[in-house]
UniProtKB/TrEMBL annotation:
Start-end of each TPR repeat: 36-69, 70-103, 140-173
Annotated SUPFAM superfamilies: TPR-like
InterPro entries per UniProt: O-mannosyl-transferase_TMTC, Pilus_4_PilW, TPR-like_helical_dom_sf, TPR_rpt
Alphabetized NCBIfam families for the sequence: type_IV_pilW
Gene3D superfamilies attached to this UniProt entry: Tetratricopeptide repeat domain
UniProt keyword annotations, A-Z: Repeat, TPR repeat
Gene: pilW
Organism the protein comes from: Aeromonas simiae
The name this protein goes by in its record: Type IV pilus biogenesis/stability protein PilW
Length: 252
């Protein structure tokens, strides 16, 4: 999964008053950065709820309070991606990196954006730039993103190397283990896929993706009893999932 912008909760007091048909919001106190973070948080919450109008209102106010805040411009990048204004999203990412040249989270998110636009070489460079930043703690996530992007661009050897690096930094990350299992299965490495699925089962609960992969692996290994065991689990626990519907339709 792509890493996404994290919201930044903060507390600040604002005064709202109405006079002569106009509503105004003024910050009480000198902490404009805190006010910006609060408005940024509200904007992202509205965006995740699908209310783009109120999201933009709050992001604009955050920008008014802190026009040079990298976090606010990163919020704009997320907003513009969501509304599919990709040129504006890119300008926002570039603004973030101008203001904060060592912001590895922004580099990671920008890399994901570039990959989504099929600009694979640029995305790869951005991911590799992110993992070299001092103090960056999400190296496993970024290498996983780089692996996913390399797979999309058809560079499977590079993807395998990125997966290996990601696993070294976080050997118990469920999504990574599932990605590795899927990759191994796709390349016919069935024993390897089974090993990753076993490790996945030690650190996470089953979901439609994991059960679907287990089902297909059982089919590839000619284990019909296991196939129907996993299919039954899909139908029982995730009846509305596409995987369950495909199992019930014998589409596997």
């Amino acid at each position: 999964m792509w890493a996404v912008l994290l919201t930044l909760p903060a507390c600040v007091t604002e005064t709202t008053y109405t006079g002569q048909g106009n509503t105004r919001h003024d910050v009480v106190g000198p902490d404009l950065q805190a006010a910006a973070k609060t408005r940024l948080d509200l904007g992202i919450q509205y965006l995740r709820k699908g209310n783009t109008e109120q999201a933009k209102v709050n992001l604009d106010r955050a920008l008014k309070y802190a026009p040079d805040s990298p976090e606010v411009h990163l919020g704009y990048a997320y907003f513009y991606q969501t509304v599919q204004d990709y040129a504006a999203a890119e300008r926002s990412y570039q603004k973030v990196l101008t203001l904060s040249p060592q912001d590895a989270d922004a580099m990671n998110n920008y890399g994901a954006f570039l990959c989504g636009r099929a600009r694979y070489d640029e995305a790869d460079a951005m991911f590799n730039r992110a993992v070299t930043q001092p103090g960056y703690a999400k190296i496993a996530d970024t290498y996983e993103n780089a692996a996913i992007c390399a797979t999309r661009s058809g560079k499977n050897d590079k993807a395998s190397e990125y997966y290996r690096l990601a696993l070294g930094y976080n050997p118990r990350k469920p999504s990574l283990l599932l990605d590795l299992a899927e990759s191994a299965f796709t390349h016919g490495k069935l024993d390897e896929a089974q090993s990753y699925l076993n490790r996945y089962g030690e650190v996470a609960v089953e979901n439609p993706d994991s059960l679907w992969l287990r089902l297909r692996l059982a089919q590839a290994l000619d284990r019909p009893a296991q196939l129907h065991q996993y299919g039954s689990q899909l139908a029982e626990h995730f009846p509305d999932s596409q995987q369950a519907k495909r199992y019930l339709a014998n589409d596997y």
